[in-house]
Specification:
The protein has about 220 residues and is an alpha/beta fold. It has helices at about 5-10, 15-35, 50-55, 55-65, 70, 75-80, 95-105, 125-135, 145-150, 200-210, and strands at about 40-45, 80-85, 115-120, 165, 185-190.
Length: about 220
């Protein structure tokens, strides 16, 4: 969901407002996905690299969005989506860890769709953490295969990505869920994320439905 800050500068929007615009657009798309019967939606909200390099003010506003989630999100939508965070817990403050755990607990029985929020996520970091987990639990390399490898990844319990959308024409994957995207279709939009409308989502679905997916057969 790229180019939020550039959108804010061009529209003379404050940090508070563009974070709200970022979230409101995501909320509209989640509502749209529920109505379309789409079972999974994921979004890369913050990478580990972002977390280390963005200003403290911006990170604090993102944390505020989490802590104020019930005042921001439509209660109707919140009661429909199951939220799962894909993340590295070690880098986040304890207070934010508690908020995230509470959101997951409150939504675990919702059945509208599963929303995977990649928060403080980074593929390279995921691989390092995977290696550490494997060494701690197994040690025996002969036991390693594709199935055992997958179970240590952050997205292990969810199906592979069908289509990955990137806003504002950056033609690269940036390591998003890389192991899970072997057969993914990629869609690149010329819209900045706050301007990415439901009409654009329809275009993504049309693109995906017209894709010839033979899974290398």
């Amino acid at each position: 969901m790229d180019w939020n800050r550039r959108w804010a500068k061009e529209n003379w929007v404050s940090t508070v407002s563009w974070h709200r615009a970022w979230w409101k657009n995501l909320e509209n798309i989640l509502d749209f996905a529920i109505k379309k019967g789409i079972p999974y939606v994921s979004a890369w909200a913050l990478s580990s690299d972002n977390f280390k390099k963005r200003s403290k003010v911006e990170i604090l506003w993102i944390f505020w969005l989490l802590t104020a989630y019930k005042q921001i999100i439509s209660q109707e939508i919140y009661n429909k989506i199951k939220v799962k965070f894909i993340w590295d817990i070690a880098w986040l403050p304890k207070s934010i860890q508690s908020v995230i755990s509470k959101i997951e607990d409150e939504t675990q029985n919702n059945t509208g769709l599963t929303f995977l929020c990649a928060f403080n996520y980074w593929w390279k970091d995921e691989i390092v953490r995977w290696i550490k987990k494997f060494i701690q639990e197994w040690w025996d390399v002969s036991l390693l295969d594709e199935d055992s490898f997958t179970k240590y990844l952050d997205f292990w319990e969810f199906p592979p990505c069908d289509v990955i959308v990137r806003t504002w024409w950056d033609i690269r994957h940036s390591w998003y869920s890389l192991y899970n995207s072997s057969y993914s279709e990629y869609y690149f939009s010329d819209k900045r994320w706050p301007d990415f409308s439901l009409d654009d989502v329809e275009k993504v679905l049309e693109f995906y439905n017209n894709s010839k997916r033979n899974f290398w057969k």
